[in-house]
Hints:
Elements: H1 2-15, E1 20-26, E2 33-38, E3 44-48, E4 53-56, E5 64-66, E6 76-81, E7 87-91, E8 93-94, E9 99-103, E10 111-115, E11 122-128, E12 134-141, E13 144-150, E14 158-159, E15 182-185, E16 189-193, E17 200-205, E18 213-217, E19 225-232, E20 238-244, E21 255-258, E22 266-268, E23 277-280, E24 288-292, E25 295-299, E26 307-309, E27 316-318, E28 325-329, E29 334-340
Antiparallel strand pairs: 1-29, 2-3, 3-4, 4-5, 6-7, 7-9, 8-11, 9-10, 11-12, 12-13, 13-14, 15-16, 16-17, 17-18, 19-20, 20-21, 21-22, 23-24, 24-25, 25-26, 27-28, 28-29
Amino acid sequence: MRTTLTVLLMAFLIQAPARFRWSPLSTGVGARLRGVSAVSDRVAWASGTNGTILRTTDGGDTWRQLSIAGTEKLDFRDIDAVDDNIAYALSIGPGELSRIYKTSDAGITWIEQFVNRDPKAFFDAMAFWDADRGVAVSDAVDGQFVILTTGDGGRSWVRVPATALPPALPNEGFFAASGTNVTVAAPSHVWAGTGAAGEARVLRSTDGGRTWTVSKTPLNAGPSAGIFSIAFSDAQHGIVVGGDYKAETVAGNNAAITADGGTTWTATKGLSGFRSVVAYVPGSAASVVAVGPSGTDVSTDSGRTWTPLPGPGFHAFSFPRRGTVGFGVGEKGSAARLVRH
């Protein structure tokens, strides 16, 4: 009997949903942080206003401020770390304020890879399959989406032809909130969530960004509302979150899930308010964390229902692909670890 009880207890512990708590960190900077990318439980990168780039190698206990010459006035809304040494940083803004930089030596030196020469374009986010292959998205220009891809480590960024993309809705674009409204999955899947128009939609590609289709979601949409973050646990199952960033505590149609690769989306309830980022817990297709400036919610059923998590709110959040610790960053250099216990 004792053996049976032990086996049952172990099975329960294995299946029990993960529990989390926030542990505050000090970054030593006062910048608004909007980008974060965790490589492991020890190594993470963060980015924000005033050309701020940060890196930790001790789980967030200390952060080193890195410098990219001539970027002191740029706003780095997205940073994507491929490993301990390789990372891409994206600054946002109209025209030449939108730029992409890359480091291959842990931030000691940076190469300017892309400068936007179109005064109407405004790049918002990027994502990478690996060190060589990536995608970056801009708000639509003259009714056409502006999407770039690279397959050579960023040495060249090529615009996807307009003929390979659906037309954009009036004012449709991508919110530059956390750098997570575009995501990828192996081998060549990519999804991007839109807003600021009459509908909140998901663009998707299964061939590395060469051709695209689009689907409507049930999220609320408008000038300050739509999809702010998108994540997939595999090529079929994904989730979008968002809302209205001018109404951070309003809980409405702020989340939706898909089980067919993003072709159709089903609204889910329970988020406590606007959420700027969503992430699957590493190693789980059921546990999901949604974070926004007003707080955090956790789901243990793939985003169908949500439970508020006590603690602070953040603009951006990241789990490593493998690990147990997540990192959140936000206003005035604020940061915290999200620890499973």
